[in-house]
Design goal:
alpha+beta, Nuclear Transport Factor 2, Chain: A, four-stranded antiparallel β-sheet, 3 helices, elongated, PepSY domain-containing protein, signal, PepSY
Length: 102
């Protein structure tokens, strides 16, 4: 019985250590600065203006992510009716990639 628990715990530990292949990659300060300088990443101000044009409301959260090698902003907006909208914008162009609403 102890051996089964140990194997289960070891397997779970390995899965957690590997992380999810679907998870976004972490960015560091230098990478973000280089992206801004090269034009691969728009400023937050530019992206916020584009997000507000797509969905009026109060921006409550912004994250810059890299997924599959491409940068994108994930922006949560609280609309006047109380709905929360999640927008995914291309970090280089500001174009809408995807939207979700709750």
């Amino acid at each position: 019985m102890k051996r089964q628990h140990l194997m289960t715990a070891t397997g779970l530990g390995l899965l957690l250590a590997m992380g999810s292949p679907l998870a976004s990659e972490r960015l560091d300060h230098d990478e973000i600065s280089q992206g801004r300088e090269s034009g691969a990443i728009l400023s937050m101000e530019q992206v916020m203006a584009g997000a507000r044009a797509e969905q009026p409301g109060e921006i409550v959260e912004i994250e810059l992510e890299r997924e599959d090698g491409a940068y994108r902003y994930e922006i949560k907006i609280l609309a006047a009716d109380g709905a929360v909208h999640k927008l995914y914008l291309d970090a280089a162009t500001g174009g809408l990639i995807k939207r979700k609403a709750k």
